[in-house]
Amino acid sequence: MGGGAGGLELATQLGDRYGRGTRAHVTLVDRSRTHLWKPLLHEVAAGSMDIHAHQLDYLAQARWHKFTFVLGALAGLERQAKHILVAPVVDDEGVEILPARRIPYDTLVIAIGSESNDFGTPGVREHAFTIDNAWQAHLFHRRLVNTCFRANFAADGRVIDIAIVGAGATGVELAAELHNTIRVLAAYGLQAFDPARQIRLTILEAGPRILPGLPEHIVKGAMETLESLGVHVLVGDPVVEVGPAKVKTKGGREVAADFTVWAAGIKCPDVLREIDGLETNRANQLVVLPTLQTTRDADVFAIGDCAAVPWREGKNVPPRAQSAHQMSSHLVKAVRRRLAGQAPTDYRYRDFGSLVSLGNYETVGTLMGFLGGGSGSLRVEGMLAKLFYLSLYRLHIWALHGFWRMALDTLARWIRTQTDPKVKLH
Ligand SMILES: Cc1cc2nc3c(=O)[nH]c(=O)nc-3n(C[C@H](O)[C@H](O)[C@H](O)COP(=O)(O)OP(=O)(O)OC[C@H]3O[C@@H](n4cnc5c(N)ncnc54)[C@H](O)[C@@H]3O)c2cc1C
Known about the structure:
By secondary structure, this protein is an alpha/beta fold. The chain has helices at residues 7-18, 41-46, 51-54, 58-65, 124-127, 134-154, 169-187, 195-198, 216-229, 321-339, 382-401, 403-419; strands at 27-30, 34-35, 56-57, 68-71, 74-78, 83-86, 89-90, 96-98, 101-104, 108-110, 115-116, 128-130, 160-165, 199-204, 232-234, 239-242, 246-249, 254-256, 259-262, 266-267, 286-287, 293-294, 297-302, 307-308, 353-358, 362-368, 377-381. The protein has a five-stranded parallel beta sheet. It has a three-stranded antiparallel beta sheet with strand order 5-6-9, with no helix packed on it. A three-stranded mixed beta sheet has the order 10-23-22, with no helix packed on it. Helix 1 (7-18) packs parallel to helix 10.
């Protein structure tokens, strides 16, 4: 259930192993028809990536890797009968395409990820963009481009204020990416529009510093880059209201915002809350045992952002693409053991570090584990950090398509970068 960073890799690998045999039948259910690796979304929003060039059709992947794809959103669960309830699918006019369905299972893996958490803040739903899926990222980009076109035509020097609420990796990376792409966009014929004077980027963070939870040297490197770009960073002052043209903070500030992007935290979809009696936490994550089985049903597993997996010092495994990838690899083994009648083993999270990409300007991070030279950690920045950052997506493509197709895809994309505009212009 859920074909994202974790679920699609799992369905692909299980399909490859069992799809042609009679021992198991693999079904992937997702509410979307196409997959886009979520860490790319801020690049889609900023316009440095075209979703159409990177989306993967679930039906094609299912055919290539011998699993069945079912389109529809998770609507509920009947654990007694071992059925997933899938919501009807309707078209843009509201006409039903597919009815509600019951999908049977013996082993269920829930991997439906997370979405932005507005913490009930007034105005977020009405006035802020969230970057939770490809469509939202695309809409944000389109509106931004239209606003720049309008400002260029008006040629009146008007200022466009962009407020990003939340200084986690998403907010910080988005700010830097926007700074770069708007300049490139302007260079493609917006002669009467000067981004240096007419674009004002502000990041607002409730906590005492940007990039909460990441090492100090990453914070320092990112702060220096943001300052050099002229991005305003306000920390220690939570946003309490979002309006059509400004955001208000608890400390009484009013920050102008023609665009507000809400990236201030995550929770899991409400459908998961105590779904058919399963244990969930305040963020709607399914509480799981170290084996990734849910605490109240050994036949239901959860992986990725929607799983609360115990880690260390009372903390859970962080919601990251690398965690989802590792959990998916663990479940490939768990399914093999299950089919052989063996007990599941415990999953152990291996933290390989963190990397923050500030557009074309800088990449900073820490590598851990064997990447960090054994048990220690290694600070990286510049070209080396950028290469590691880019390799994360390449590893996902490798897991989905195998080494040779990943290599061909990398070459094809490099060729396209030589012939296409540097940013999406529409
Ligand atoms: C802008 C952005 C940048 C990020 N950058 C990084 C990064 O640099 N490094 C990193 O490690 N992590 C990053 N992350 C976090 C990372 O993307 C997630 O941790 C990771 O994608 C989680 O994988 P997942 O498989 O749990 O869920 P997802 O990848 O989110 O996939 C969930 C899938 O479930 C489907 N789905 C959702 N709800 C339903 C439903 N009700 N019914 C059916 N299907 C459903 C969705 O369509 C999707 O296909 C970033 C996240 C964002 C938003």
